[in-house]
Design goal:
Low-confidence stretches: 1-26, 47-51, 351-356, 577-582
Strand content: 25-35%
InterPro entries: BACON
Organism: Sphingobacterium spiritivorum ATCC 33861
Number of domains: 3
Number of strands: 37
Helix content: 10-25%
Protein name: BACON domain-containing protein
Pfam family, one: BACON
Structural class: mainly beta
Oligomer: single chain
Distance between the termini: 78 Å
Largest sheet: 6 strands, antiparallel
């Protein structure tokens, strides 16, 4: 009977010890110590990328918590005083806050307390040999976390907890009245999530290039502001770069699996030393993987650093054609063939005594639409603010909000955008989503209305020529030193398009025709050319030129040795000797847009 009793007690102890992996207190509080409760306020995500490899709770899991006390001198400098281990009071399954207690030395001095989570071994290494009364930054710079491969975040049953850092405000003495204080924690790593919304592409793998091999657990003193928001990366001296790390994607989403230390922004597009991605997948039903480079850029296509406690959500919205044959070839090239947007945000935590965190996120910042038909547009937002308003300016009579669907913090607006009456001009508008003091603006860009010449054409034709081009790359909208040998539409210039380009004048996906498409418009026989021109004229379009020797440009070729222009007066093909970066005044272009 006695053996059975001890067996039950042993099983209960094993069961309860599994709640959280924390150190147990060795003894009670001493007379010169004060037991203080620490409330850790944890980072909040709100990302809807999909099912996480490790959940939000896992990402905020605290397996160890160390408290560093720094005495604040009269001149404001802070000096290391002592180190304590905190003990978990109670778990919190909602992943927003968690409570610990710690025994702090009683003192009338001012102190700041630095909290280090999930980096006990790295902290002990930093403390070994630390000079007495070392300044805070001296110790903080010594706490480094190194990795030799990708961060272990396979599943909730198999992951390494993420190191975190936080600091208290200045505490004016520790005595019997010091009961508790809150500290907002920041993860020492960033997260990257990837999803695909293009139905013509199935993502299979993601490769992350140049992951840093180590990082600081705490940011450098000058790299965060008074609200503890990180403003620049803190990169330890001698940081190495890992070989490309491979991740397997599922259901076109990879979320909660890529975690990495901070890195600087790339020096330029195509920088081989940059931290970036290669996306592998199957395009248009192919059974073979093809590869695309993706760089970390903002909505103005400026290259961005990787910052701790930030989440970078990459959405692949369009794949224009096959990519590179190998992952190495893709990384060695500049980004091409894929349109991806990236949204980055700081997963801030909010300490007690401050307003609760309000958030407003939209699934897009810009929508591009065809102009030749009425469009149904859906915009989804996520917010915890109760009163949300969609604002469409009164003079936008071509955009109408027709439906609203709400579920939890998700709101989807259904809008109808009328056909563009203009055949020559794109039109733009801005709609705003307002949630309390927060707002999000979405740019709506609708292309001009093109002509449909019938089922025999796989493209729509715009009604007027673009003239006085001077340079081919202006019309093609490609960088002077980067263009596809197959089709210029695969290497579109990032950011604002050239003013004389098809895209700038006519809207989304407007482009130069390929050589075969232009041949349909300008056949070799005179009767065929006349028939096409009559059809264009009947649809209200301008006839293609039939006088003079003005060549019409194509997007297919990017070499001077290839026949890549067609004369509208006789259907003859020719080469343009000053192609691609010089020009002549007699060039013409008739832009098209694909039907699918």
């Amino acid at each position: 009977m006695k053996q059975r009793f001890f067996l039950i007690i042993t099983l209960l102890l094993i069961l309860f010890s599994g709640c959280k992996k924390v150190d147990s207190p060795e003894k009670g509080t001493k007379p010169n110590e004060q037991e203080v409760m620490l409330r850790l306020v944890l980072p909040q995500s709100g990302n809807k990328a999909g099912t996480y490899a490790i959940s939000q709770v896992d990402q905020n899991s605290i397996h160890s918590l160390d408290v560093l006390a720094f005495r604040v001198a009269v001149d404001g400098k802070e000096y290391y005083a002592y180190h304590r281990k905190a003990v978990l009071l109670r778990p919190n399954d909602n992943a927003t806050t968690v409570d610990f207690h710690v025994d702090l030395l009683k003192s009338t001095d001012k102190f700041r307390f630095v909290l280090i989570a999930n980096a006990a071994a790295q902290l002990q290494t930093a403390l070994n040999g630390l000079p007495a009364n070392a300044e805070k930054e001296t110790l903080m710079s010594r706490i480094e976390y190194g990795v030799s491969t990708r961060w272990n975040a396979i599943s909730s049953a198999n992951f390494t907890p993420l190191p975190m850092w936080g600091e208290s405000q200045t505490i004016d003495g520790i005595d019997n009245n010091t009961q508790k204080f809150s500290v907002s924690m920041l993860r020492s790593l960033a997260a990257i999530d990837v999803k695909v919304t293009d139905n013509d592409f199935v993502m299979t793998k993601v490769y992350v290039y140049n992951m840093p091999g180590k990082g600081r657990v705490a940011p450098a003193a000058g790299n965060y502001n008074t609200d503890y928001k990180v403003t620049a990366p803190s990169i330890p001296t001698g940081t190495n770069k890992l070989a490309a790390q491979e991740y397997t994607a599922g259901t076109n989403t990879l979320a909660g699996e890529i975690f990495l230390f901070e890195s600087a922004a790339a020096a330029s597009t195509g920088d081989l030393n940059a931290t970036g991605l290669v996306i592998a997948g199957k395009y248009a039903g192919s059974t073979t993987d093809t590869y695309y480079r993706v760089e970390l850029t903002d909505e103005q296509f400026r290259l961005m650093p990787v910052l701790r406690n930030h989440r970078y959500a990459i959405d692949i919205i369009k794949v224009h054609g096959p990519g590179s044959n190998t992952v190495t070839d893709a990384w060695s090239s500049k980004p091409t063939g894929m349109t991806a947007t990236m949204t980055a945000w700081n997963e801030i935590a909010v300490a007690e005594g401050k307003p609760s965190l309000e958030y407003l996120k939209s699934d897009t910042k810009k929508v591009e639409l065809y102009g030749f038909e009425e469009n149904n547009l859906y915009i989804t937002t996520w917010t915890n603010v109760p009163n949300v308003e969609l604002i469409i300016p009164p003079d936008y009579d071509w955009i109408e909000n027709t439906e609203i669907h709400e579920m939890d913090d998700e709101i989807t607006y259904g809008l109808v955008v009328e056909e563009n009456p203009s055949t020559t001009q794109a039109r733009t508008g801005k709609i705003t989503i307002k949630a309390g003091r927060l707002s999000a603006t979405i740019d709506v860009i609708q292309g001009a209305r093109p002509i449909d010449l019938g089922p025999g054409y796989n493209f729509y034709l715009f009604s007027e020529n673009i003239t006085d081009l001077l340079y081919w790359y202006y019309a093609a909208n490609v960088p002077k030193d980067l263009y596809s040998l197959e089709d210029a539409s695969l290497t579109q210039k990032p950011g604002t398009p050239y003013p004389k380009s098809c895209v700038a004048r006519l809207g989304t996906r407007a482009r130069l025709p390929t050589l075969s498409e232009l041949r349909q418009l300008i056949p070799t026989d005179a009767a065929g050319r006349q028939a096409v021109n009559d059809a264009i004229h009947a649809k209200g379009g301008q006839r293609l030129s039939t006088n003079g020797i003005d060549p019409y440009l194509t997007s297919t070729s990017a070499t001077v040795s290839t026949v890549h222009t067609i004369r509208a007066d006789n259907g003859a093909q020719g080469t343009y000797g000053k192609f691609p970066n010089q020009g002549e005044g007699n060039l013409k272009a008739r832009c098209v847009v694909s039907k699918n």
